[in-house]
Amino acid sequence: QRSGTHFLINNLATNFMGVEDGWADILNDELKRSLGEGDRMHFREKIWEQLRDYHPVPMRRCMKTHFQMYFLEPRWDAILEKYDVLYVVRDPRDTMVACFNYCNHTNFEAYIKEPVFSKFLRADLGAVKTETGPFSYSHVKPRNIVDKWNNHVLGWLPYQDRGVVFVRFSDLKYRLRETLTSIESKTSQRLT
Question: In the chain, which end has fewer C-beta atoms inside a 10 angstrom radius, N or C?
């Protein structure tokens, strides 16, 4: 799997009813087209417009995002009315290794390309296209990939008791059935 998020999505699609096309990808081509290069000021509102209008059927969907919570905070209560929000947490050491491997093996040039792991961890993200473009997942600009992970997790942790279901990557991997049953008990999603 390319990320914990995709590992979770694939497990949801395989094991829950109607999820194969029942999750919302916040950053998709429609949103990218609706924003110009310098339109970051309206980014949070555009995200909300997309989530609000994503699916006309009154069905709760799972929300997929790699964004920091900052982008969702203004409309959090409204988002929870339409979406089940799950957040994958993973041992940061495993996350960094997976990120290192993915970034160095993908053909997508906007990512960090650094073949030495210790340098990858310390690489300045100031010039990395995925961090400087208008569709960056980070509001608070990170210094390096470790800082990016830290900022992201710290932004989501306070929402653990405010509608976000936290799913441990290791539980998905080693305790799949129990984890899926737990997700079912905490969301509107139903196992097949």
Answer: C
Q: Tally Cβ neighbours within 10 Å of residue 162.
A: 10
Q: Work out the pLDDT band at 139, boundaries 50, 70, 90.
A: low
Give CA–CA dist 154/84, Å, rounded: 20
Buried b (16+ CB within 10 A) or exposed e, 29-41: eebeeeeeeeeee
- Specify whether the CB–CB gap between 181 and 191 falls below 8 A: yes
Cα separation, 186 vs 134, in Å, equals 34
Contact present, 109 and 12 (Cβ < 8 Å) = no
Please compute the mean of the pLDDT values over residues 11-36 and round it to a whole number. Answer: 66
Question: In the numeric block, which tokens belong to residue 114?
Answer: 């650094």
* Distance, CA of 109 to CA of 152 (rounded, Å): 22
C-alpha dihedral sign at 14, 16, 19, 24 = negative
Q: Over 90: is that where the pLDDT of 140 sits?
A: no
Give the separation between CA 93 and CA 101, rounded to whole angstroms.
13
The pLDDT of residue 96: 93
Say how far apart CA 30 and CA 113 lie, in whole Å: 28
Is 176 a residue whose pLDDT tops 90? yes
